Amino acid sequence: MPTPxxxxxxxxxxxxxxxxxxxxxxxxxxxxxLFHCIGQFARDAAQRDxxxxxxxxxxxxxLDRGAFNPERGSLGTWLYRVAWCRCVxxxxxxxxxxxxxxxxxxxxxxEKVDESPSPPELAGGRELSAVVRxxxxxxxxxxxxxxxLRFVDGLALGEVxxxxxxxxxxxxxxxxxxxxxxxxRLLLVHTAGEVSL
Length: 197
Prior knowledge:
Blueprint: H1 6-16, H2 20-38, H3 45-64, H4 75-98, H5 119-137, H6 141-152, H7 157-164, H8 168-192
């Protein structure tokens, strides 16, 4: 049974508390390991960056759930295994989406699809906007700023980073974290059935 590395134990504890210096150290130490794994699954630079962000969040979520056991191996070995399995799962989902779905064509199919939104869709869009605005108000100020700069103002990641005075790597990490926080808040609103805003 391997002896836990005190430095790795301290790094994991820092990651669990989302200590900025620990996150920076983690990103610096394991970036190349993650990209080595990603390189087996994605060739396009944009796809690699997206997959990298996904793997970071997936890894942190797994750490939060106590999935890493230092007595069973090093953090790097565990991280590579988690990253590989995640990449395989995402590849399977992607290939499942690409498979054509066979459908029976009915006799009464219209010649042209009416693409204008229906009244329920319009009402639903307004309601959804209100729900998102309400969920955004529960986020931390930095998370709101990042999400607004990226998705409302449409700034590129580099521009968002310059506006916030942080590195591109930190911009990607914090923006992903803010997106996850918003998604969790929206899930809470949905499962709790909060409709009065």
